[in-house]
Specification:
Blueprint: E1 2-9, E2 16-28, E3 43-57, E4 60-61
Antiparallel strand pairs: 1-2, 2-3, 3-4
């Protein structure tokens, strides 16, 4: 993860947020996956490509209810 900007106030809710660049997480299934629920991934892998996103903190994404 690379920090690009922040912390700065969210344009909608004014909560402190940081713009970061993170790898995209790709959902899939492992070789030993029973695939009983195909919509639920059992394996995740980070892509080589990074994407920009807004984070409220290091633990997760900012979800502004007024955005």
């Amino acid at each position: 993860m690379t920090v690009l900007l922040g912390p700065t106030p969210c344009a909608s809710c004014k909560a402190p947020v940081t713009v970061v660049r993170r790898p995209v997480m790709i959902a899939g299934h492992g070789a030993d996956c029973p695939k009983k629920k195909p919509h639920v991934a059992c394996a995740w892998v980070a892509s080589a490509v990074m994407t920009e996103t807004v984070a409220a903190d290091a633990n997760g994404l900012h979800r502004c209810i007024r955005a």
